[in-house]
Amino acid sequence: MKKQLFACLAVAALLSACGGRTGASSQGEATAEGQPVAAEKGQQKVEDIDPQSEEALMIQVKDYYAEMNRMAAEDDVIDIARLDRQFCSKSLLALMAQVYEANQKVDGPKGYFSDEGYHWLQGLGTPVEVDINEVYFEEIEKKKYAEVYLALKNNGSTSKLRLRTVFEDGAWKINDFVEYDCDTCSLRNDMDAFLGNPIP
Fold this sequence. Notes:
alpha+beta, 32% helix, 6 helices, four-stranded antiparallel β-sheet, globular
């Protein structure tokens, strides 16, 4: 397995404004960061599907991890900051920005917040395979949300998690990374706790 280097989570906050950068899709095509990848599904492309549909959501979730696998295979580095910037919601990136600012005030490693990319890899190596088990949708104040239960697999190991997503700017963005069987065990709650914010 290739040795993998991880960009600090803190950098994601510093670079949270993606501002028209481009990144490679899972098919190797150039695509604006944060926009749905033109992935093939039979003869249908994702831009031909209702972008708010379950079908489009499932394609995009698989594209998140396809891009991570591509980074590991082609670049020999998983740029966690770029994955966050490309696929996370504005709200989650704003919280990461607060964590980044708080980290700048920490003198030494004690009290410094970073999960070292765990929210993406869940302790697994690459490449990861993605199995989507269940999807639940809801609408709150005219905004669409979906919770995706999935399993990541690599080399005989499996890690389950939930992605809480929100539809914004024409694509499904990750609003939180949550443990499969624990509603309050999530990246967002960990960051709120670090900042001293109330936990919902």
